[in-house]
Amino acid sequence: DGGITQSPKYLFRKEGQNVTLSCEQNLNHDAMYWYRQDPGQGLRLIYYSQIVNDFQKGDIAEGYSVSREKKESFPLTVTSAQKNPTAFYLCASSTPFAGAYNEQFFGPGTRLTVL
Amino acid sequence: DAKTTQPPSMDCAEGRAANLPCNHSTISGNEYVYWYRQIHSQGPQYIIHGLKNNETNEMASLIITEDRKSSTLILPHATLRDTAVYYCIVRAVFGNEKLTFGTGTRLTIIP
Fold it and tell me: CB B44 to CB A106 under 8 A?
């Protein structure tokens, strides 16, 4: 089955610890994205990558870091510098430069709780 | 990307058509209208998109006004599984790849 996997579904960490969220896709998509969602809110873009070894900051990149060493993988690290890390994190992928038809496919999300 | 305005919530009876409105009065000529939906605690799912003509697929229909300042997503025969938050997004096709999500419309299908 083609798709996007995020693991784990629920993650608990102590305050001050860095934590890395996994995102893997086997859709052969070039572009990948990380979004954050807080209760009752829409999604906000953290980072995105349109090609391997390249990524750009989104609207709320402070306190987060990413890497894109492989086309299939786009891990997100939530650092201790992120003031309010507790949230629902969503990963997505798409085929860029495909005009209007480059819909984004989303993973199931990881719900991070910092205690 | 242009800003969109949607009602925060709507109810619809099961089996009836659900009509979800969206205002995008500052849309520019190269911007498409996209609709996504998010079922509770899942990732958003693409529904449909359009530029100026009405569009239909297996999930829904999209009606865009002639001046392109508003649109309506139509779910022709709503089921309980259509209960979700529906996001209307306007974005340019080229250059900026990100989707800007507002707070959407929470649609509740009533049995």
Answer: yes
Per-residue model confidence as pLDDT tens digits over B71-105: 999 999 999 999 999 999 998 776 556 788 888 99
Give residue for tokens 């993650």: A11
User: Of the candidates B32, B46, B104, which has its C-beta nearest A104's C-beta?
Assistant: B46
- Buried-exposed string B44-67: b where 16+ CB fall within 10 A, e elsewhere: bbbbbbbeeeebeeeebbbbbeee
DSSP element (H, E) containing A21 = strand A19-25
CB interface of B with A, residues 13-72, below 8 Å: 32, 34, 41-46, 49, 51
How does pLDDT run across A55-102, given as a tens digit for each residue? 999 999 999 999 999 999 999 999 988 889 999 999 999 886 656 666
Task: Say how many CB pairs under 8 Å bridge A and B.
Answer: 54
